[in-house]
Every structure is written in C-alpha cells, then in structure tokens.
Design goal:
Elements (H helix, E strand, L loop, with lengths): L2 H33 L4 H21 L10 E13 L4 E11 L5 E11 L5 E3 L2
Antiparallel strand pairs: 1-2, 2-3, 3-4
C-alpha cells in the first residue's frame, strides 16, 4: 500500500469511528453532492456563443446583413472540439436555411471558430 492510501484509510477509519455509520452517510452524501458540481451552465453558454458567432458569420455573407433574403436557424446542439494545437474550436452545426417564397433545406456546416470568437473559417 502506498503512503497516501494508508493515510486515506486512517482518515476514513477515524471519521467512521468518531461519527458512526448513521452520521457518516449524510456527511458522505454532502461531499458527493458538492464534488459532483455540474458545469452545465458553462456548457450552455459555450453552445450559445458558438451558435451566435456562426449565425453572425452567415448573415455577414449576405449583402448588408439583409435577413429578408435568407433566414438561418441552427438546430440542436453544436458538436465541437476545443483544439489546443490550432487554438480554434472545430465545430459542426445543423443549419436550417429558408428563402422567402421557396422551400427550406437543412444541412450540416462545419467551421473553425477562433477562441476569441472573432474569426470563422468554414470548411464544409
């Protein structure tokens, strides 16, 4: 047994003997709840930031940001990878594009988005 495991075992035994089993379960439950802090809000914020950056990029490609010519909507979640080598987010979007008076279509678009969200490079 390593030194750290021995110390962990001694601490656990001391807590168990001092509090008993009835008090140990609530203490461990509280530790478990705080240890499993979910970062869902930061994930949601990242998804929204990537979506808004991509939509801004798509509308900038239309003359004078005229959304009466075409409408874009990103459907579902963004699939992305934080690439530390290139310092870009490698993203894949499911986009609905509709033209007024015509049918709409859904397709997949890929883009590299810079970490500061100022540069977008489409690749698919």
């Amino acid at each position: 047994m390593t030194f750290i495991k021995i110390i962990q075992s001694c601490i656990f035994t001391a807590i168990f003997k001092a509090t008993g089993m009835k008090r140990l379960i609530p203490i461990l439950s509280l530790i478990f709840v705080f240890a499993c802090n979910n970062n869902a809000s930061s994930e949601d914020e990242m998804q929204e930031k990537l979506k808004s950056t991509m939509l801004n990029f798509l509308y900038e490609k239309i003359a004078h940001n005229d959304s009466s010519k075409v409408k874009y909507k990103i459907i579902g979640d963004v699939i992305y990878y934080d690439d530390d080598v290139t310092h870009y987010y490698d993203c894949e979007f499911k986009v609905r594009m509709s033209l007024p008076g015509r049918k709409d279509t859904v397709g997949t678009m890929g883009a590299y988005i810079s970490k500061d969200f100022k540069e977008v490079q489409r690749f698919k």
